């Protein structure tokens, strides 16, 4: 048994000293108006596609994130799918995504019959490395008629989807510059970053269009759910239209003017969302307090770093993460075993997308940093209520 593994468990235990109860990685908290609003949808019978909570949730969410419009949908994956569709990602296009992400980012690209093209992440943000991307583009890309092409495959590179890992914002200024130079559309996967800010601006408000998730394990939940964010009114109207079966509004007639999706968020989920969103400022405070406690105890543990926000950003600390030094990557599984067998849930980061069978042959830049991070990241208990106790 390595000493470091034991020191790490002891450090977590100082912050989360509940040895007799199982401590999950992330647990939702329902202590506000959740029951009241949800009950109202049931009492009124408007649990599904009609009711006031969807409009209210969209308005509240747009206000919270500082974008012009939000469109509520069934989950974050659907939000990404619609975002890609609306910027015009087509069959045979390539879309840059980090190799270090949750499967939803890659799946959404595949739903459009496009090909994910993997980019590397950087250690400081755990997100897309814009400098490395820039030099890679210099080598492989050519811009013709304001469109970017991959010289090696001949395919168009239509968009990039940076993802704000565990709530830590990507280096957006640099990335935006690269996107403009190469005419690549920016779509943010802000599924993990509600309440995270880059230079004071909310994540998900930089892209042409962005996706959020309200799955049960995210900082707030609607049960299952997601949203599309955009400052472009036209794109927002289109998003609303194609996520609601492209039905032309009419009192009784059923006319649809294109192939749409049934991706609308039901009213009962939006009711839960309205109540949860009221609590997000409170969740954020508690999460900051929890992250602060972890950062203090891990100062005394050499060989591992508690992931903290960069100087210019504010993280929501959705999932707290430890990053082992390269020399210690060999004890990751020991730490996972030790903690999970002693009532403390921890887990490694997702397997890199290009290590999965269906994406193994997709184009990729050198992703040595992501390859290294994959072996060294451990997520530790992060429920907001842990920051309160
Ligand atoms: C949660 C998540 C999504 C969306 O997930 P859904 O379960 O479909 O809501 C997308 N991308 C990332 C990075 C996520 O963590």
UniProtKB/TrEMBL annotation:
<dbReference type="InterPro" id="IPR026385">
    <property type="entry name" value="LegC-like"/>
</dbReference>
<dbReference type="InterPro" id="IPR015422">
    <property type="entry name" value="PyrdxlP-dep_Trfase_small"/>
</dbReference>
<protein>
    <submittedName>
        <fullName>LegC family aminotransferase</fullName>
    </submittedName>
</protein>
<dbReference type="InterPro" id="IPR015421">
    <property type="entry name" value="PyrdxlP-dep_Trfase_major"/>
</dbReference>
<keyword id="KW-0032">Aminotransferase</keyword>
<comment type="similarity">
    <text>Belongs to the DegT/DnrJ/EryC1 family.</text>
</comment>
<dbReference type="InterPro" id="IPR015424">
    <property type="entry name" value="PyrdxlP-dep_Trfase"/>
</dbReference>
<keyword id="KW-0663">Pyridoxal phosphate</keyword>
<dbReference type="InterPro" id="IPR000653">
    <property type="entry name" value="DegT/StrS_aminotransferase"/>
</dbReference>
<dbReference type="Pfam" id="PF01041">
    <property type="entry name" value="DegT_DnrJ_EryC1"/>
</dbReference>
<dbReference type="GO" id="GO:0008483">
    <property type="term" value="F:transaminase activity"/>
</dbReference>
<keyword id="KW-0808">Transferase</keyword>
């Amino acid at each position: 048994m390595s000493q470091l593994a034991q020191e790490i468990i002891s450090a977590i235990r100082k912050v989360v000293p509940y040895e007799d109860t199982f401590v999950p990685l992330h647990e939702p908290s329902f202590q506000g108006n959740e029951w009241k609003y949800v009950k109202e949808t049931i009492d009124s019978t408007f649990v599904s596609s009609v009711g006031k909570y969807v409009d209210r949730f969209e308005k509240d969410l747009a206000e919270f994130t500082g974008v012009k419009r939000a469109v509520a949908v069934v989950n974050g994956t659907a939000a990404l799918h619609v975002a890609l569709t609306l910027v015009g990602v087509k069959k045979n296009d390539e879309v840059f995504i980090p190799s270090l992400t949750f499967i939803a980012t890659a799946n959404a690209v595949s739903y459009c019959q496009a090909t994910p093209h993997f980019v590397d992440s950087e250690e400081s943000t755990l997100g897309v490395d814009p400098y490395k991307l820039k030099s890679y583009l210099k080598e492989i890309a050519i811009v013709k008629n304001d469109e970017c092409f991959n010289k090696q495959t001949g395919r168009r590179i239509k968009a990039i989807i940076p993802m704000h890992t565990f709530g830590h914002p990507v280096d957006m200024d640099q990335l935006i510059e690269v996107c403009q130079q190469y005419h690549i559309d920016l779509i943010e996967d802000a599924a993990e970053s509600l309440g995270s800010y880059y230079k004071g601006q909310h994540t998900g408000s930089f892209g042409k269009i962005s996706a959020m998730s309200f799955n049960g394990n995210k900082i707030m939940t609607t049960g299952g759910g997601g949203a599309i964010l955009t400052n472009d009114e036209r794109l927002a109207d289109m998003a609303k239209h194609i996520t609601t079966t492209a039905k032309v509004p009419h009192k009784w007639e059923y006319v649809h003017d294109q192939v749409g999706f049934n991706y609308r968020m039901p009213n009962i989920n939006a009711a839960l969302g309205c109540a949860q969103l009221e609590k997000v400022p409170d969740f954020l405070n508690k999460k900051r307090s929890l992250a602060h406690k972890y950062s203090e105890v891990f100062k005394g543990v050499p060989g591992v770093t508690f992931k903290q926000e960069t100087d210019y950003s504010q993280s929501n600390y959705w999932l707290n993460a430890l990053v082992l030094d390269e020399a210690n990557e060999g004890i990751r599984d020991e730490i996972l075993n030790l903690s999970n067998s002693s009532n403390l849930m921890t887990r490694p980061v997702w397997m890199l997308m290009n290590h999965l069978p269906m994406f193994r042959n997709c184009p990729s830049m050198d992703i040595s940093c992501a390859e290294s991070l994959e072996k060294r990241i451990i997520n530790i208990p992060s429920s907001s209520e842990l920051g309160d106790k």
